[in-house]
Amino acid sequence: MRKLKNEELGRLSVDDYKAAKKRPIVVILDNVRSMHNVGSAFRTADAFLIEKIYLCGITAQPPHRDINKTALGATESVSWTYREKTSEAVEELSEAGYKIICVEQVDESVPLQDFMPYHDGKYCIIFGNEVFGVEDEIVAEADTCLEIPQFGTKHSLNVSVSIGIVMWDFFKKLED
């Protein structure tokens, strides 16, 4: 066994990525304060061919060296836009037929493993601020909230870890 070289991985060029068919998933970052988490979101979105990222509120925007440090160039491949208010992005995507999903711990949340996306559906998945989570106003407007089961002593996962878990789960379920 040996590690593969980068040229053996068969990755797309940025131009090929931009032209590739994307998964009908949009990610909203709702007031995410850490630029490293923003960069990680771009990198994960690139890995799973996500359609677009909306950066909302205080969420930093590229270009910035702290975003680039973790994005490793994914800000060049993944389409993104900024909205001052998360509600503007949610309204826009809802009107375009996206199912609005918050990743949040709420009284009526659905455990991630129990949620089954439709193969012909379009999804907007919202990840919130590292301390306060998704804004209450946005949670109230969501079609559903997903919760990642946890079994230890901590109450939450890092937002970049949550993005990776949820994107992988959607990828697997939509590929079956």
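the 2nd protein, sequnce then structure:
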Amino acid sequence: MFIVKYRKIFFTLSIITIALSFYAMAVKGFNAGIDFKGGSIIEVAYDVRPSVETLTTALNTAGFEGSRIQMAGDNDVMVKTRALSEADRQSLTKALAVSGSQMEEKRFSSIGPTIGAELRTKAWYAIALVILGIVLFIAYAFRHVSEPISSWKYGMITSATLLHDIIVPAGVFVWMGKEVDTLFVVALLSIMGVSVHDTIVVFDRIRENLKLKISNDFMVTVGKSLEQTFARSINTSLTVMLVLGTLYFFGPASTKDFSLILWIGVAIGTYSSVFIASPLLVVFEKWQNRG
């Protein structure tokens, strides 16, 4: 009952975090990766890897200012830069072949700005369609629940919490200056899957307790349902977050940002499922009774 009783505190925390996320997006904007704005990426391996400063100097001298250098593994280096022609690619490769180190090119890929814009549009479509599909599924799954609130309101609340669960991690990423690419979108879709799973578990327990008529007060029913599922939700999320934390600290550099946003998203998703979604049912029920 604690969560439901003090729901206004949790609602306020969510409103503040969402406002801060939108502020970060408006002020700093998304740092789009080459997947969405176009560009080239090359990965090379050295027997003795040069320092970032040495590589930066070599690239700037060759005319590749502003390129992003990322260390990967023990001896690999990834360089992200503008879209390159074949001649530019050869110049870049020569610049990376700094003296004193043997270098091997492992991967090169390039995406034009038109394809990047198309991928960005499809990413938004994918997120919108996933949210719509989840809302329709929940409305169908809870179709026999009509009292005290109708099934479509369960779906609407779920969609609101899903937006909450992707806006906040996205805002954190923007504030940190992290690059937004296709892995970022995959992470957001994964976050929605984890979040909706937790929400459905709690909603299903509420549905069962409504059938059992454990109380005539809907607020009490929701509170009891949260008490019954709280430990499961927290323990499951902590297990996932432990794995993601291990991947972030001990995994390859290419998956660090992916595991980080998933970690943030799982934490936020668990919070919204427990502290936001179910208390919103109580709010809807009270509004309905007043009307």
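The beta strands are 31-32, 39-46, 68-72, 76-81, 103-111, 179-180. DSSP finds ten helices and six strands in the chain.
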